[in-house]
Amino acid sequence: MQRVDLFPTHEYGGYKLRAGRPYPFGATVVGNAVNFSIYSRYATDCTLVLFHNHDKTPFLEIPFFKEFRLGNVFSMMVFDLDYENIEYGYRMDGPFAPRQGHRFDKTKILMDPYAKLIAGRDVWGKEPDWINNYQYRSRVVFDDFDWENDLPLETPVNDLVIYEMHVRNFTCGDKAGVKHPGTFAGIAEKIPYLKELGVNCIELMPIHEFDEFENSRPAPDGHTLYNAWGYSNVGFFAPKAAYASTGKYSMQVDELKNLIKKLHAEGIEVILDVVFNHTAEGNENGPYISYRGIDNKTYYMLTQDGYYFNFSGCGNTLNCNNPNVRDMIVDSLRYWVTDYHVDGFRFDLAAILGRDQNGYPMANPPLLESLAHDPILGKTKLIAEAWDAGGLYQVGSFPSWGRWAEWNGKFRDAVRRFVKGDEHVLDDVKERITGSADLYASANRGIKASVNFVTAHDGFTMMDLVSYDGKHNEANGEGNRDGDDNNNSWNCGWEGESTDIGTNFLRHKQIKNFISILMTSQGIPMVLSGDEIGNTQFGNNNAYCQDNEISWLDWKNLEKNADIFNYFQKIIKFRRQHKALRYEYHLGHSDWRNLGMPDFSWHGVKAWQPWNTYNNLTQAFMLNGRYADSDGKPDDFIYVAMNMHWEMHGFELPQLPDGLKWHVFANTAMAAPQDIVEPGYEILIDNQWEVLVEARSIMILVGK
Amino acid sequence: MSTKVYKTGERLDSSNAATEQPKILAILDGGDNVVIDLSGCNYVSSAGLRVLLYSYKVAAPKGLKVSLAGVSSEIRDVMEMTGFDKFFEFYATAEEACKE
Predict the structure, then answer these.
(1) If you measure CA to CA, which chain A residue comes closest to B54?
(2) Could you tell me the residue range of the domain that residue B77 belongs to?
(3) Could you tell me which chain A residue has the CA closest to the CA of B47?
(4) Of A308, A330, A437, A514, which has the fewest beta carbons less than 10 angstroms from its beta carbon?
């Protein structure tokens, strides 16, 4: 059967047209036509502008006839377009009245906010033609990727081990050993490495189209500083072309989908770091890319006199709780799940998503509620960075409807302080290790709401956390004023790289202490890419602008710091083998099933006496594996002795039920390879009553 | 069932996808395997890749094979990165493909 509603009714400039379908927004192939649809509440007229690929001047501009407008939507079908070889944009007419919030300018050619393919920055670092008056160019996408039987994996959130990575930094560095460095294809080549490490989820720093040349400038030493991290969206529906080796052929969509399909085949999920809090258009002095010229008053939070609110710290704030913008965000997220099979999202500066149109925090933000209950996102991981640059800090109080997890910044701070030897943080660190019940026990959130981490892209890498007392951001060109001063770091006695064997041993041990606590804590652990090979940024704790050796993983470190990689690999495996480390809801700290011992218990240097500590720096905990049975088979007992004190101490061991013995899995005080064993091959200890834990060391025992 | 060779031109893209596709499908309709000879082709676009994959999708349920011959290393590389390679067997020449 042929459809009867696909006959042209109009003609313009040699192209046949008819009134389009308002929904879906964007450019959609329908039969032998492309349906263009865009909304603007305040525009008076709209023109579709068509270019041959890369041309500076359009070959045709088609006005939307009056009968092509329904409500506030302009839609039109254009027949027989060679859509693989065209780029399109819009001109919008309407008032230019900034004090009323309107900035229409029909001299500007605007990108489609729903563009699923964006050209103009196809090859990373290739200087754009700044004279071109259409920089970010919408294209029509081929969206018929063959997924075969792939779907999002729906791994239980409490089983995840997340690996946060940047597309370029992961494989641009020395000895990365890939054919296509810095691209989606490069990550695909590294899948065997990720499998070997044992993570089952990668979290990609922003991969929506952005402009690495936004605010690019020369550094003090002459090299170019870029917007390398990409926390500044050009579009919300298109992948970053220059992150694809095939971007120059406009095949970035297929390349990214292929990466996700391959990761899924190996059991690895994909979470996208999404930036819905602002756009790359900046403040009133910024460029016209799309939103500003299409419907400024709809897309942005504006002050009463038409200036941009700046809760993002980046010049503007997306008007997330405007109903139309809210719909766009939902459409975007649904698109990434349905078309890209993405498993989850981490929302940058998510507190902004809960502000009303005047910037005030809402009790029940409709956007967040919509996302929590959205049917397509029903099994999608939703993770909030629960603060913003406007001072709203919602760790533990982010509106969740039982669905939202959070980056637990308090875990990071407490664990950093504890491991460096801060005597005032024990109570706090105990909350963090047990899944932050103080933050997440209410509202049916549970342990699964807590994404635990020690390091993330913001701040020091783990190696730098133990190598620098202060940040060293001179290369960023701001006189070392940028970046956080509150790092809770300790350089282990020498600032920066050291050749001293003792210093380096202590640093490696501290790294192993961090990862030991992270992997034995309740909550979802997140590892920063490169920490497993002791990656350094040379003390730079804000490397957003560094597309060079400062940020790129130096894969020579895999050999140099083989002991760190080995430790990470084994402790990740240990976590994934022990259900007792991966509870979904908070523990009772009692023997509520009468299994002989509590599900979880704290201990000091004396068993069952957690108060018995040295300087609040000696503490142990035990998980009763009988509470973590699966298929009727109980897990092992796990005992973790943490001595962050600067002297060695004996830890009296809690006695196991008859028939079970304590075995050593890890001891960070030991030199590799005696520091950790293959999970399942733990070594029986002679003295079942006490272990000696060296200064600043952790021992992990298994009772079996 | 025999194998027939279909040789493309210098490009396989939206400019000729609509005309090339039916010719390949006609061979499959005749119950023959197809070797698509790309030895003279130096560019395959997104639309072109879909011509190849669509041919495979039509062939597979019929128990027929679509093989690719003479694919340049650059095109092969693009196919690998975008996942289109996994549906095909590749041969250096059409003759070699026919022997298989």
Answers:
(1) A146
(2) 3-99
(3) A84
(4) A330
- Distance between CA atoms of residues A382 and A374, nearest Å: 11
Q: What is the nearest CA distance from B93 to chain A, expressed in angstroms?
A: 25
Task: Answer yes or no: A159 catalytic.
Answer: no
* CA nearest neighbour of B87 among B58, B66, B63: B66
Which residues fall within 8 angstroms of residue A63, CB to CB, at 6 or more apart? A12, A45, A46, A47, A48
Structure tokens at B34: 């197809």
CATH topology of domain A10-139: Immunoglobulin-like (2.60.40)
Entry field: residues in chain A: 704
Chain A with chain B: Cβ pairs closer than 8 A: 53
Model pLDDT, residue A468: 98
Q: What is the mean pLDDT of residues A381-406?
A: 92
C-beta separation of A176 from B83 below 8 A: no
Instruction: Encode A227-241: b = buried (16+ Cβ within 10 Å), e = exposed.
Output: bbbbbbbbbbbbbbb
Each residue of A541-559: b (16+ CB within 10 Å) or e? bbbbbbbbebbbbbbebbe
Number of other CB atoms surrounding residue A174 within 10 Å: 12
The yes-or-no verdict on residue A117 having pLDDT over 80 is yes
Residue B88 pLDDT greater than 90, yes or no: yes
The reply to whether ipTM tops 0.85 is yes
CB A529: neighbour CB atoms within 10 A? 24
HEC string of A484-505 equals CCCCCCCCCCCCCCCCCHHHHH
* CATH class of domain segment(s) A588-703: mainly beta
* Residue A686, C-beta contacts closer than 8 angstroms, at least 6 positions apart: none
Say whether A83 and B14 touch across the interface (CB within 8 A): yes
Domain-wise residue ranges, chain A: 10-139, 161-199+411-419+433-586, 588-703
* Nearest residue, CB atoms, A84 vs list B47, B53, B57: B47
DSSP for A56-76, written as a single string: SS-SEEEEPPGGGEETTEEEE
**How crowded is residue A14: how many other Cβ atoms within 10 Å of its Cβ?**
8
